[in-house]
Design a protein that fits this description.
By secondary structure, the protein is α/β, with parallel strands linked by helices. Helices cover about 35% and strands about 20% of the residues. The chain folds into 3 domains: about 120 residues, Methylthiotransferase, N-terminal domain (Rossmann fold), CATH 3.40.50; about 240 residues, tm_1862 like domain (pyruvate-formate lyase- activating enzyme); about 40 residues.
C-alpha cells in the first residue's frame, strides 16, 4: 500500500509510546506515509491504555473525532483496551479493526489486508502471548524510550495489566545492547528504560541468569549514550545494590520513580502489593543518604475500596513526611475482572476526587520544595526541543525542568546550567 497515509494517537504510558514509534517505523519502511493525527489520513491507529475508565472513554471519544474529521478513513484500535474489551470496541461505529496484544506487531500485514466495512477482531487469549517484541521511540532525537521488559506476574487487586499484556517477559541483554547502539546512531543522548515491571528484567525465560542489575551495569559501559534513566521500578525490586550503583554512576541519572499506591499498610495488603510502608521509606532514606540531590517520584491511588478517612489521613501523613519530589495521583477506577471488585465498602466518587485533589496539591508543594532546594546549583541539563524559536527546554540530571532563550547550538546538548 505505498502512498497510503497513516496517523497515530497514543494513550497511556512510555511503553505505549515506544511501541507506537516502532509500529510507525515499520509502516514507513513499507511505503506508508506518516501524517500528524490532526491531519487527514487514510488510516488512523489508536494505541490504547486501560488503566482507568477515563482511558477507555478517551479512546471512544477519539473514534468519534476521527470519523468527524475523516469519514472515509479506516480506524484501527490496538493496545491494552483492545486486548481487554475487543467486542466492545468493535461495536463502536467507525472501528474497522481491533488488534489484541498478540497481533499488534503484525500491524503491517493487517493493514495490507484491511478491506470491507465490517469490524474485524484479531485477538487471542492473553495466556498465549509469550514472546517479547522490542520497541523504542525515535520521534525526539534527544530522548528515546526503550522497552526492555513487558507483562507482569504480580496481579495487584486493582490492576488489569496482567490481563492486557500477559506474563512477565523481557529482552536479552545482548539484544538490548544492540538496540542501544542503533538508537545512539540516530543522535539520541538519553535513553529511558521502560517496561511494565522493569525490575523483573531477565527473571524468566532464556538468559534467566541475567537480571536488572546486570542490565544497568552493562549499559553503564556504553560510551555512545550519555544518559540513562530508570522509568519506574517496584520498591521490592529496587534493592540496595541498584541504589548504590546509580549513586556511583556517571550515566544513570539520579532519578527514581517508585510506585507506592498507598501509605496505609492495611490498604497495601488489600491491594496485594509486595511491600509495606517500612520497606518503601527505607528505600527513600537510602537514596537520599547517598544522593541528597536525587529526584524521587511516586504513584498513588486514592479511594481504593474500603479506604476510610483514617486510612486516607494515615496515607497522607506518611507521604507528606517522605522526601519525595513529585506524585502521580490516580483516582481508583473499577476495572472488570479485578479482585478489588470483591472488596467493600465502596468509596463514594466525590470522596475519591477530594482525596485525589489533596494529594495533587501536596505533589505541587513537594515539587516546588525540591526545585527551591536546588535553585542556584549548577547541574547538567540536556536541552531538547523549543517552543517555536523563542524558548528552549530540557531536564537536569535530577529531573528539574529548565527553560532558556532559544539557541540552536544548545539543542540536544548536555550543558552545565545554573538552576
Amino acid at each position: 500500500m505505498p502512498g497510503t497515509t497513516v496517523a497515530f494517537h497514543t494513550l497511556g504510558c512510555k511503553l505505549n509510546f515506544a511501541e507506537s514509534s516502532t509500529l510507525l517505523r515499520d509502516l514507513e519502511q513499507e511505503g506508508f506515509i506518516r501524517r500528524d493525527f490532526e491531519e487527514q489520513a487514510d488510516i488512523y491507529v489508536v494505541n490504547t491504555c486501560s488503566v482507568t475508565s477515563r482511558a477507555d472513554q478517551e479512546c471512544r471519544a477519539l473514534v468519534r473525532r476521527i470519523k468527524r474529521q475523516a469519514p472515509a478513513s479506516k480506524v484501527v484500535i490496538t493496545g491494552c483496551y483492545a486486548q481487554l474489551k475487543p467486542k466492545e470496541i468493535a461495536s463502536l461505529d467507525g472501528v474497522d479493526l481491533v488488534l489484541g496484544a498478540g497481533e499488534k506487531f503484525h500491524l503491517v500485514s493487517h493493514l495490507k489486508n484491511l478491506a470491507g466495512c465490517s469490524s474485524r477482531i484479531c485477538s487471542c487469549d492473553i495466556s498465549g502471548v509469550n514472546d517479547f517484541q522490542p520497541a523504542w521511540s525515535l520521534q525526539d532525537r534527544t530522548r528515546s524510550f526503550l522497552k526492555v521488559q513487558d507483562g507482569c506476574d504480580y496481579h495487584c487487586s486493582f490492576c488489569t495489566i496482567p490481563f492486557a499484556r500477559g506474563k512477565s517477559r523481557s529482552s536479552r541483554l545482548d539484544r538490548v545492547l544492540e538496540q542501544v547502539e542503533q538508537i545512539a546512531a540516530s543522535g539520541v543522548k538519553e535513553i529511558v528504560l521502560t517496561g511494565v515491571n522493569l525490575g523483573d528484567f531477565g527473571k524468566s525465560g532464556p538468559g534467566a541468569e541475567e537480571d536488572f542489575t546486570c542490565l544497568i551495569r552493562a549499559l553503564d559501559r556504553v560510551a555512545s549514550i550519555q544518559r540513562f534513566r530508570i522509568s519506574s521500578i517496584e520498591p521490592n525490586l529496587l534493592d540496595e545494590e541498584i541504589i548504590r550503583f546509580v549513586a556511583g554512576s556517571n550515566r544513570f541519572m539520579p532519578h527514581f520513580h517508585i510506585p507506592l499506591q498507598s501509605g496505609s499498610d492495611r490498604i497495601l495488603g488489600l491491594m496485594k502489593r509486595r511491600y509495606r510502608r517500612e520497606l518503601y521509606s527505607s528505600r527513600v532514606r537510602l537514596i537520599k543518604t547517598l544522593m541528597p540531590h536525587c529526584c524521587i517520584g511516586a504513584d498513588l491511588i486514592t479511594g481504593f475500596p474500603s479506604e476510610s478517612e483514617a486510612d486516607f489521613k494515615e496515607s497522607f501523613r506518611f507521604v507528606e513526611n517522605l522526601d519525595l519530589s513529585y506524585l502521580h495521583v490516580f483516582t481508583y477506577s473499577e476495572r472488570a475482572s479485578t479482585a478489588a471488585l470483591e472488596i467493600g465498602p465502596i468509596v463514594p466518587h466525590r470522596q475519591r476526587q477530594e482525596r485525589t485533589s489533596a494529594f495533587r496539591q501536596l505533589s505541587e508543594k513537594k515539587r516546588e520544595d525540591f526545585e527551591r532546594r536546588h535553585r542556584g546549583q549548577t547541574r547538567p541539563v540536556l536541552f531538547e526541543s523549543g517552543n517555536g524559536e523563542s524558548l528552549l527546554e530540557g531536564y537536569s540530571d535530577n529531573y528539574i525542568r529548565v527553560s532558556s532563550p532559544f539557541s540552536k547550538e544548545r539543542v540536544n546538548q548536555v550543558i552545565p546550567w545554573t538552576l
